[in-house]
Automatic annotation (TrEMBL):
Residues 4-121 form the Response regulatory domain. The modification 4-aspartylphosphate is found at residue 56. CDD domains: LuxR_C_like, REC_NarL-like. Residues 147-212 form the HTH luxR-type domain. PANTHER family: TRANSCRIPTIONAL REGULATORY PROTEIN NARL-RELATED, TWO-COMPONENT RESPONSE REGULATOR. It holds the Pfam family GerE. Keywords: DNA-binding, Phosphoprotein, Transcription, Transcription regulation. This is Response regulator transcription factor. It comes from the Bacteria. The keyword Transcription regulation applies. The keyword Amino-acid biosynthesis does not apply.
């Protein structure tokens, strides 16, 4: 199955360099090429059937960190890897906090970038090693895991729907993002209510966060 990629990069020379790196791998298909965050969001509004975005940080009109935040809110199913020259703490942490799933410096070689794309789509967090070391500093303020949680078993699809519900999306928006009908979303939501023993979206999200099923 082809992996559909979008690239947000305002420098045409660097954009071509990224395209050349991806060209070695026939299962990657570049669907969108955007020159800033606004351009990217406009293209996604027309067609959001994308698996992953390679995102520059410094771009005119809307930078990559702002764009990641908006993509994360509107299209939480799309993975985002930052591809930038910046490796300072501020950019790394702002990007991760905004919702980036991975972070590579532009010097990354084609094979490492390709494997990072696969790992990220598989739920990993691909990073240049030096960036990963800096990101680990976040562990200095770890969440409180001392509180016990209930044993609640949700399916992967139910957790996906719950994550999107937590972002304030309605049945139609969730259905569009996950390529299922609003009626199917409603049915999954009813099952979630039953399993969590709740009666509203708010209660469901609060209980899921409390039991560390989704992030708050």
């Amino acid at each position: 199955m082809s992996i559909k990629i979008a690239i947000a990069e305002d420098n045409s020379f660097l954009l071509n360099a990224i395209l050349e790196k991806l060209s070695f791998f026939p299962d990657l298909s570049v669907k969108h090429k955007a020159y800033n965050g606004i351009d990217l969001l406009e293209q996604l509004d027309k067609d959001s059937n994308i698996n992953l975005i390679l995102m520059d940080i410094e771009m005119p009109k809307m930078n990559g960190i702002e764009a990641v935040g908006q993509v994360s809110q509107k299209y939480p199913q799309i993975k985002v890897i930052m591809l930038t020259v910046f490796d300072d703490d501020e950019h790394i942490f702002k990007a991760i906090q905004a919702g980036a799933h991975g972070y590579f410096l532009k010097e990354v070689d084609p094979r490492t970038l390709y494997q990072g794309i696969l790992d990220t789509l598989d739920g990993g967090a691909a990073m240049t090693p030096s960036v990963a070391m800096k990101a680990l500093r976040l562990l200095r303020n770890p969440p409180d895991f001392s509180q016990p949680v209930e044993e609640i078993k949700l399916t992967a699809r139910e957790i996906e729907i719950l994550e999107q519900t937590a972002k304030g999306l309605n049945y139609n928006q969730i259905g569009e993002n996950l390529f299922i009908s609003p009626k199917t979303v409603r049915k999954h939501t009813e099952n979630i209510y039953t399993k969590l023993q709740v009666h509203s979206k708010l209660e469901a999200v609060q209980k899921a966060v409390k039991n560390r099923i989704i992030e708050g």
